[in-house]
Amino acid sequence: MNSPRRSLLVTGGAGFIGANFVHHWCRLHPGDSLVVLDALTYAGNRMSLAMLESAAGFEFVHGDIADQALVVDLLTRHGVDTVVNFAAESHVDRSIIGPDKFIETNIVGTHNLLKACRQVWLQEGRAAAHRFHHVSTDEVFGSLGPSDPAFHEDTPYAPNSPYAASKAASDHLVRAYAHTFGLQVTTTNCSNNYGPYHFPEKLIPLVIVNILEGKPLPIYGDGQNVRDWLFVTDHCRAIELTLERGRAGETYNVGGCAERAPPPPPPPLCRIADDAFVGDEALRQRFPRCPSAAGRTADSLITFVADRPGHDRRYAIDSRKIERELGFVPGVSFEDGLAATFRWYLDHEPWWRSVMDGSYRSWITRQYASTV
Ligand code: NAD
Ligand code: DAU
User: Fold this and answer.
1) Is 299 noted as a catalytic residue in this protein?
2) Helix/strand/coil for 185
3) Which residue is catalytic, options 42, 163, 194, 252?
4) What is the mean pLDDT of each successive set of 10 residues along the chain, which is 372 residues long?
5) What is d(CA 275, CA 37) in angstroms, rounded to the nearest whole number?
6) Which terminal CB of the chain, N or C, has fewer other CB atoms within 10 Å?
7) Nearest CA to ligand 2 atom 30
8) Does the active-site annotation cover 138?
9) 364 lines ligand 2 (CB under 6 A)
């Protein structure tokens, strides 16, 4: 790529999508400088960036986006011209049990980040050319009926969970800072991501580690809720294209396959697991509790549990704008992405074991009391 050199601040860069983005960016833009600011909500997350820690131009800072003085210092000292804001509380179920943290980080934290950018870039005039990119979600648009058209950029906001409401508020603040103060912003609203470094509290990685450990696969309600699954590296490319070619002030919807509703992930993952264990004695030795290791099928673990309160029934993304304007189309099919993700978890057992610490186990016990 022949883009000009940038100095990036990537907030939440130790999280799932953030870490994938940081790896993607460092691989494709080795001359840029990149600072990650992350509160390490999940203690093991720093491991996701371990191989970059000694790379030239890379720095990790443990801190909070709500700490305006810290952010001002980072923007100034590193001559940052591009902020990519991934930092957030991101799990819908946690927002139902404890919404306060979502307000603090997703709304107040994003606002303090915006204030710091305004101060350094606009009031002190340190970066005439700058970009604040905000990573948001399709959940701000609410829930679709079976035959409703997919969400497009002008779909009215109708967030249903405390998580979605906090993300919607942050999107509005980003928009207001562009409109009122002239901050150069872009926002992407993306569908469900999956892939490497995904914390095993979300459906796909939870199902994978539970299959391997022979634990119940908890399915909420009737298991027919529809999501538009996007492999995480495709999302990273979409953000990269938005930074390089996206028009300031615009929002772009990013989805996996728009109109096609993929099957819910647990059954295909069970089949992938069963196939992987056939004829692989080493795998059977490593994960003896997995049903596939004993010649049974992994789908015997599927367990229907109480539904999530206010569970959104269906999300679907109309991503024609980002395709038309920036040339983005997803490159990884759902089937290939699931197989690659399962393989990644097999190959990175130390990573997922390290993030499943005491606080993770407390969460699982609390959330799935009826199945564990
Ligand atoms: P994640 O929970 O894996 O990562 C979030 C990261 O933010 C964590 O590393 C956490 O430590 C950090 N963080 C939390 N509070 C912070 C604070 N106050 N200051 C600094 N860092 C803080 O989540 P994710 O799935 O990688 O999501 C990243 C972003 O993408 C979020 O903004 C989320 O709303 C958005 N998003 C996620 C998806 C998805 O499917 N996962 C889809 C669309 C949009
Ligand atoms: O749509 C984008 C959003 O996708 C992001 O903004 C969120 O940060 C991200 O967490 C994700 O939200 P979801 O709620 O859709 O993802 P989750 O993996 O939690 O759930 C996916 C679906 O699976 C959903 O219909 C609920 C269901 N589910 C989830 C869990 C954790 C289960 O049936 N059982 C479970 O144990």
Assistant:
1) no
2) strand
3) 163
4) 81 98 97 97 86 92 98 98 98 98 98 98 94 98 96 98 99 98 98 97 97 97 94 98 98 77 82 96 97 96 97 96 97 95 97 90 91 68
5) 40
6) N
7) 203
8) yes
9) no
